[in-house]
Amino acid sequence: MAPIKLTPIRMVPNKMAPIRMVSRSTARLVFAAAGALAAMALPATEVRADYVIPTSQATVIQKDGDGQCSLWEAIDSINKGHTGNNSGLHGCKNDFGGNAIYLEGANTHYKSGGAVITKPMSIFSEADPTTPNYLENTGGAFVLKVMTDPDGDEVYLYGLFIQRISTTTKGRVIENTGNLHLEFCKVVGGDISGNGGGILNSGGILTLTDSTVRNNKASDKWAAAAAGELAANGFSLDQLSRMSSREVAGKLFDAVETLTWRAANLQSEDLRKLGQMPMKLWEKRANIPGLLLEKGANLFIRNGREDRS
Fold it and tell me: Are residues 227 and 191 in the same domain?
């Protein structure tokens, strides 16, 4: 019997529905079943996508004319509308006519080149969670920036370890003003003097599913707070009583931001210290009446008035 030609199965749909990966083993079972029906043996089939990035292109940003496709080049191709079959730029070729980018290999460090995503797309890896593929940038303002329409143009990142390699310059891992979904991802290494060390979500929609954002730093002050270095430099009740409402609101906002940073970067040492807090509060119980009295007196002095009516 003549061999039967089978069309490869694309694992990620063009319509940006949540990605549900089909493993290589499942793909092989599909082809094995077809082969059994045809009374023939078929070789194992690799996962396919519209743009497949080989490990040999992991460190390449842009290199026109080499007939190969890097991650940055594939993103640029989709940004510029090359989602049709056999289309593409920089040597990239769209195999199936869609907007899915697949990173081959495992534990491979792919350079993003600080790519900016302006069109809906998915970037995914099928690597084992214990040896994920890395999506990273050394220096630069960010690893990835998503600028799609938040009302509809969705971007999916699946199964990736996304990190910024520390340098003398500061930067974030991800900036999002679009509609971004992270599934089974880790986001680490952000270091910025401002908001959003790991992910800055500004006016966008951000959805995290089974993902982790950790070991990021949003300012030197917050890093010091995480290390407990600001605990002895708080405000006395007298200082608080002299502040305007705007100043108090500002300090409260800083406290909330610091607590948010701590919650997002909780370490095992923090859990150990947390267990000591009830004893510390108990040891200072005798100070509570005096503190309440001082606070009440300060409020009365500053806000009280004589009723002359």
Answer: no
- Rounded CA-CA distance 111/126 in Å is 18
> Is 36 a domain residue?
no
Residue 52 lies in a domain: yes
Contact 181, 247 (CB under 8 A): no
Both 253 and 212 in one domain: the answer is: no
Q: How many H helices and E strands in the chain?
A: 8, 15
pTM of the model: 0.59
Rg of the chain's alpha carbons, rounded to an integer? 27
Q: How far is CA 268 from the centre of its chain?
A: 22
List the domain range (segments joined by +) for residue 253. 222-303
Query: Does 120 share its domain with 203?
Result: yes
- Does the residue 120 lie in any domain? yes
Q: CA triplet 16, 199, 195: central angle to 5 degrees?
A: 145
Q: Give the pair of three-digit tokens for residue 263.
A: 């919650």
The total of structural domains in the chain comes to 2
Tokens of 5: 């030609």
Each residue's pLDDT tens digit in the chain (309 positions)? 444 443 333 344 333 433 333 333 333 333 333 443 333 333 444 455 799 999 999 999 999 989 999 999 999 999 999 999 999 999 999 999 999 999 999 999 999 999 999 999 999 987 777 788 999 988 788 999 999 998 889 999 999 999 988 777 788 899 999 999 999 999 988 887 666 778 988 888 999 999 988 877 766 555 555 455 444 455 555 565 666 666 766 666 666 666 666 665 656 666 666 666 666 666 766 676 666 666 666 666 655 554 454
Tokens of 124: 């995914």
